[in-house]
Design goal:
17% of the residues lie in helices and 30% in strands. Strand 8 and strand 9 form a beta hairpin.
Length: 644
């Protein structure tokens, strides 16, 4: 026999059942089964051992056992060599009694940059690459689907004696540190970890948040519990220095998880960190038209319905219901269904509108029902193109950063962030959510920051003289001054694996993609009506840079800043001679055609009793884009006539 010798044991079976995506899963791992699934088995296959059997009649193999529990235990261990050898009537199994020696209780003393106790992220490996605690034997609050765990000052981890490498940090505003530790043969041991920031954006008045993380579904489990608890999610929010964590209950485990919805911030929240449970409309009848992130809800059941199946089959009524109760509404993972084979922004190619991103957005934005579309967790061209096109038509939807943890990204919460400008004092969730609605935020991977963006005296998301938010009024064509404070951080050595990836490969947004050649610089683009019109190079060494652009404006325009693809501001709208923004004829043509493409794909999923109302809403959008297109063509015709 020259096949692989595979170990097996009922004691090494999974402690959990991965999410099935069902709203009311009926799978179960009984508590006594969890207790008996304490063993991790690894067959040594590295040199000098071979990966397969040699064919000799007698052969020795090395097997490593990891026990979750200490003390005297019995495990049934068996072996097979593939098809036909797994069930031999217990002849390939043997019960083994053994004593598991207790690991060392290692207490972590974790200090923030100012010496205060704090929660941080730790990735612990030995010289063979094993991750500790063993991922397969983890249950919440330690998540099995990524390497790191989170520990606050005074908490401990159990480690066998030996040498380990510890990588530790606390989100993108902190430096990543690595150290080697040697755990002695003692009952208890203590280690100190000092964290170091490269920037503290909250101290500058900007509070980070991720409006899209989940406590159930995707990489989470259905059993032994239906997802995880608020206490578990809270540790991850703190450990990533995420000021605001929006935990969205959605289709998977909906009926169990909705018990955690309170219509207000969690009692776990503090002056500097808040968590709130809200809703993602995903796994619902309208999901085919685009998933929705609904924030600041007071009621989580649509107009009193009791089951998911009773919700509307299209998005507009759900968005309007959210806003009627004072909520903030937007589209999730915007790029899905809007894929194009193009690296140009905006792309004028027509996407299929066949996914679960900001698809029906092309209609709903006309009805004033969409506060934001999401960014950072889908390919940047796909998600930003539709936003640019609607901005070019004069609509003023904002963007917000999200991770969709642990679905699109299971690495950690806060990979996509919104940084909202807020006043001093205790953090208020409502103010943060309204900041997203009002566009008083920029989105980022956390490694570049677009602070205090202004055009003349108008700041992003704010108003002057009680005028509209983010609006600069100019009586005639003029040159305006654009100012901001910009900071970015790149490691000195390029990450070749990331920087050469296509834009539709993960990570979709990452500061490494912005690196200019082999320098430590990134480009800061001044974007006007979707086009980068000026660029300055910024040294990404963590220092804050004051930047200024002088920008001539001939017509009403939207203006933004970006470090592509790492961060993007919300726009400031410069209105010349009281004229609306009608920036691009091709954008208006794109939007008009997109309504028809969206209808062709989505109307088949609308219920018969809702189809007339949906058709009327689409007709309103068609009419609006047609009027905008006619306006643009009329202006262009007037210009042409004057030039002749």
């Amino acid at each position: 026999v020259t096949a692989k010798l595979e170990p097996e044991s009922p004691n090494s079976k999974p402690m959990l059942i991965r999410s099935t995506g069902k709203p009311d899963p009926d799978v179960e791992v009984a508590p006594n089964e969890v207790l008996n699934r304490f063993l991790e088995i690894e067959m040594v296959r590295r040199p000098p051992m071979k990966s397969t059997l040699s064919g000799l009649l007698l052969e020795y193999r090395i097997i490593q056992l990891y026990s979750r529990d200490e003390g005297k235990r019995e495990a049934i261990i068996g072996f097979n060599v593939g098809q036909g050898t797994q069930d031999l009537g217990f002849r390939n199994e043997v019960p083994i009694l053994f004593t598991a020696v207790p690991a060392v209780e290692v207490t972590f003393k974790v200090k923030d940059f100012d010496g205060s106790p704090v929660m941080a992220e730790f990735r612990i490996t030995d010289d063979k690459g094993h991750v500790y605690p063993a991922r397969a034997r983890r249950l919440a609050p330690d998540f099995f689907f990524h390497d790191q765990v989170y520990r606050k000052d005074g908490e401990h981890i159990l480690l066998p004696p030996g040498e380990y490498t510890v990588e530790y940090t606390r989100g993108p505003e902190y430096l990543k540190k690595t150290r080697t530790i040697d755990i002695p043969h003692e009952k208890e041991y203590e280690l100190e970890f000092d964290l170091e920031r490269w920037i503290h954006v909250a101290d500058l008045g900007w509070r980070s948040g991720d409006h899209h993380v989940h406590a159930a579904g995707c990489s989470h489990y259905d059993a032994p519990t239906q997802g995880v608890t608020p206490q578990d999610m809270w540790r991850h929010i703190l450990g990533e220095d995420l000021n605001v964590g929006c935990v969205l209950t959605w289709g998977p485990c909906w009926y169990y998880q909705k018990q955690f919805f309170e219509g207000e911030t969690s009692e776990l929240s503090t002056d500097n960190y808040v968590m709130r449970y809200d809703v993602e409309v995903s796994g619902f009848p309208s999901s085919h038209a685009g998933h929705l992130s609904l924030l600041r809800l007071s009621e989580d059941d649509y107009k009193g319905v009791e089951t998911i199946e009773e919700w509307p089959s299209w998005d507009l009524p759900v968005l309007q219901w959210c806003k009627e109760q004072g909520g903030v509404a937007g589209f999730s993972h915007s790029g899905w269904g809007l894929m194009v084979d193009d690296d140009t922004l905006p792309s004028y190619k027509m996407p299929p509108f066949d996914g679960i991103g900001a698809n029906e957005y092309i209609v709903d934005v006309v009805h004033g029902a969409v506060d934001f579309i999401s960014a950072v967790d889908t390919p940047v061209i796909w998600e930003l193109s539709i936003w640019y096109h609607t901005l070019n038509c004069g609509y003023r939807t904002k963007i917000s950063g999200e991770t969709d943890f642990p679905c699109i990204y299971g690495d950690r919460v806060g990979l996509g962030r919104s940084y909202v400008k807020l006043p001093e004092g205790p953090l208020n969730y409502d103010d943060w959510a309204y900041g997203v609605r009002d566009g008083r935020n920029y989105v980022s991977d956390g490694y570049s920051h677009l602070l205090d963006f202004k055009v003349n005296d108008v700041a992003m998301g704010e108003s002057t003289h009680d005028g509209p938010l983010s609006q600069l009024n100019l009586p005639e064509a003029a040159t305006v001054t654009v100012t901001a404070r910009i900071a970015a951080f790149l490691e000195e050595k390029p990450d070749e694996k990331i920087r050469h990836k296509d834009l539709d490969e993960k990570p979709y947004w990452h500061i490494e993609r912005a690196r200019i050649d082999d320098t430590r610089k990134v480009p800061l683009d001044l974007v006007v009506n979707g086009k980068a019109v000026q660029t300055q190079e910024i040294l990404a060494d963590g220092e804050i840079n004051d930047v200024t652009f002088e920008l001539p404006l001939e017509k009403s325009s939207w203006i933004a800043l970006r470090v592509f693809p790492s961060s993007h501001s919300n726009p400031i709208f410069a209105i010349v001679d009281s004229k609306p923004i009608r920036a691009d004829e091709k954008s208006a043509e794109w939007c008009l055609e997109a309504v028809d493409v969206c209808w062709d794909k989505k109307s088949k999923g609308y219920r018969a009793e809702e189809i007339d109302e949906a058709q009327a809403a689409y007709d309103v959008a068609r009419k609006a884009y047609k009027e905008i297109l006619d306006e643009i063509r009329g202006v262009e015709a007037d210009k042409q006539a004057k030039s002749e």
